[in-house]
Specification:
CATH topology of the largest domain: Fructose-1,6-Bisphosphatase, Chain A, domain 1
Strand content: 25-35%
Largest sheet: 8 strands, mixed
Shape: globular
Structural class: alpha+beta
Order of helices and strands: HEEHEEEHEEEEEEHEHEHEEH
CATH architecture of the largest domain: 2-Layer Sandwich
Number of domains: 2
Bound molecules: adenosine-2'-monophosphate, calcium ion
Number of helices: 7
Oligomer: single chain
Strand order of the largest sheet: 4-3-5-6-7-8-9-10
Helix content: 25-40%
Radius of gyration: 17 Å
CATH superfamily of the largest domain: Fructose-1,6-Bisphosphatase, subunit A, domain 1
Number of strands: 15
C-alpha cells in the first residue's frame, strides 16, 4: 500500500510539522505550565500548549494537503477524500512536559488505507528526531536503527506505561507484580511514542502497555517495525487500544505469552 502516494512528500510534511511544533513547545514551555483541562482522570492532563501544537500541525498539513483526513488527540477527526489520514499526538508525555522531564515527543504519522506508511517522533527536549518510511527502514537522524535481538525475557529491559483512566491503577499494579520478577528490570518513561522509539534503537528490549490510542502508537509503531520489531496486541489483535506489545519477534512471543493470562478482558 501507499504506492499511489509520494511517501517522500508525506515524510517531508510530517517531519517539518513535527519539528516546527517541537521547537515551538521547547521555546514556549513556561517553567510551570498550567493544566487547563483533565480528561479520563486527574492524571490525564492537557495544557494550552498541547492544543496550540496540534493546531499548528493541523494547519501545516492542511496547507500542504487540504484533502487528507486528520485525526489528532486534542482536535479529533476531520474527514478527507484522498485515502491519506494523518495521526497526530502534539505532545506524547504531557505529564513529563508539565514537570520539565525531558521525555516527551511530538508524534506525526501518515496512514494510507489505515496502515502507517510514514512516522516521525520528534523528542524535542533531547533534540532527537526518529523517522520511518514503510519498507525503507527506521532512522535516528542519519543512523539506521535495529532493535535488539536474541534477548530472553529474563534478561530483557522492558519499558511500560500506565495509561490514564479512572480505575486502571489496580489492574496495572497486578500486571506489574507478575512481570517485574520475570524480567531484567522495568522502565516507565511516560511517553508511549518514545518507548517505541527506544525499542527501535535498542535502548530497551521491549515494551508493553494497555490502552494506548492510535495517536500514541501510529508513528512509533512504524519506527519500531522498520527497526525489526514486531508490534501487536494479544492473541493476534491489533496493537491498540488493548494490550500493545513491541519487541523483536522471539521476545515478543515470550512477552505475549506472559501477558495473555494477565490480560483480563475488562475495559478498565
Ligand atoms: P499523553 O501524554 O499524550 O496523554 C503514559 O502511560 C502514556 O499513555 C502516554 O503516552 C500518554 O499520552 C498515554 N495516555 C494518556 N492518556 C491515556 C488514556 N486515557 N488511555 C491510554 N493511554 C493514555
Ligand atoms: Ca493526553
Ligand atoms: Ca499520547
Ligand atoms: Ca498527547
Amino acid at each position: 500500500t501507499g504506492t499511489d502516494h509520494d511517501l517522500d512528500e508525506l515524510l517531508g510534511i510530517a517531519a517539518a510539522a513535527a519539528r516546527e511544533a517541537g521547537a515551538m513547545l521547547v521555546a514556549k514551555r513556561p517553567p510551570r505550565p498550567e493544566v487547563v483541562d483533565t480528561k479520563s482522570s486527574p492524571t490525564d492532563v492537557v495544557t494550552a500548549l498541547d492544543r496550540e501544537a496540534e493546531e499548528l500541525i493541523r494547519a501545516r498539513i492542511a496547507a500542504a494537503r487540504p484533502h487528507d483526513s486528520i485525526l489528532g488527540e486534542e482536535g479529533g477527526s476531520s474527514p478527507g477524500r484522498t485515502g491519506v489520514r494523518w495521526v497526530v499526538d502534539p505532545i506524547d508525555g504531557t505529564v513529563n512536559f508539565l514537570y520539565g522531564l525531558p521525555e516527551w515527543a511530538v508524534s506525526v504519522a501518515a496512514e494510507v488505507d489505515g496502515e502507517a506508511v510514514v512516522g516521525v517522533v520528534d523528542v524535542a527536549p533531547r533534540g532527537e528526531v526518529f523517522t520511518a518510511v514503510r519498507g525503507r527502514g527506521a532512522w535516528l537522524g542519519g543512523e539506521r536503527l535495529r532493535c535488539n535481538t536474541g534477548v530472553p525475557l529474563a534478561r530483557a529491559l522492558i519499558a511500560t506505561g500506565f495509561g490514564y483512566g479512572a480505575g486502571r491503577r489496580e489492574i496495572q499494579s497486578e500486571v506489574l507484580r507478575e512481570v517485574l520478577p520475570r524480567v531484567r528490570d522495568i522502565r516507565r518513561g511516560g511517553s508511549a511514542a518514545v518507548d517505541l522509539c527506544s525499542v527501535a534503537s535498542g535502548r530497551v528490549d521491549g515494551y508493553f502497555e494497555r490502552g494506548p490510542q492510535r495517536w500514541d502508537v501510529a508513528a512509533g509503531g512504524l519506527i519500531a517495525e522498520e527497526a525489526g520489531a514486531r508490534v501487536g496486541g494479544l492473541r493476534g489483535r491489533p496493537a491498540n487500544p488493548d494490550m500493545t506489545v513491541c519487541a523483536a519477534p522471539e521476545l515478543f512471543a515470550e512477552l505475549h505469552d506472559l501477558l495473555v493470562p494477565l490480560d483480563p478482558e475488562r475495559d478498565a
